[in-house]
């Protein structure tokens, strides 16, 4: 009898859960998990995580000292909340969790490095070794430079919002641990740009982009791992079977689990040797030139940073409102 697609995928690819929802992670038992501000915001609003949110907020208030504004307390609480969810996730999964640096720092190398070190220090204080944490940073030139510094310190990075080959090559040359090329967001852009409703999975522009990056890395022996992300349908996932890792939302994990059929391997290092691929070396000028020439990559990177920034601002507002309610409760209980 045929196995379900998820079981077969696990035999050739590391399956990662793309969620902040602890219950979903317990259900699908992925190797690793990734979070981002949007996912943390969604989880923070679920009743079952209210206690985590409240404890984090009250501790942040205590540590901020007298005179701190609700906004300042909320900002500190967000930094800690991402780690609080990360710690809960690490109790369930055997592998690594990805925790994101504030998207508003995406063009600031120094501030990104500082924030990443703070995140790692929080995990260390909770008894978690740095091998189990990936620091998530946007794939801007400045972000890649920050990640290069961090990798030399033994802090592993996951470069996210990656849409173009130029970003992928710059990451590989900087010795980054892992990259997350965004499949679904690339498809979204092409659908909007061409007016097409859909693409067959094998011609999906996001699938083609990740395939190109995977083949480039394997051809030239780069150690950086490729983790396809941001999927819109299971066709995109099955076309990338064999990729180093794939990070998948709980709803699509459920769909893969419910689907019986054969899953052939599509990406394979053994098939890359004979491919004709030109090696490109990336400096800042080349990166900027390729980025400008790639309308999709420049649109989606800017839009992604803007989206994560908005999610952060929403979360900080949510936390500030929650703090006001908690304080009001304390006053009435006395």
TrEMBL record:
Belongs to the transaldolase family. Type 1 subfamily. It is an enzyme of class 2 (transferase). Its EC number is 2.2.1.2. One of its GO terms (biological process) is pentose-phosphate shunt. It is found in: Cytoplasm. It holds the Pfam family TAL_FSA. The gene is tal. This is Transaldolase. NCBIfam families: PRK12309.1 (NF008965), talAB (TIGR00874).
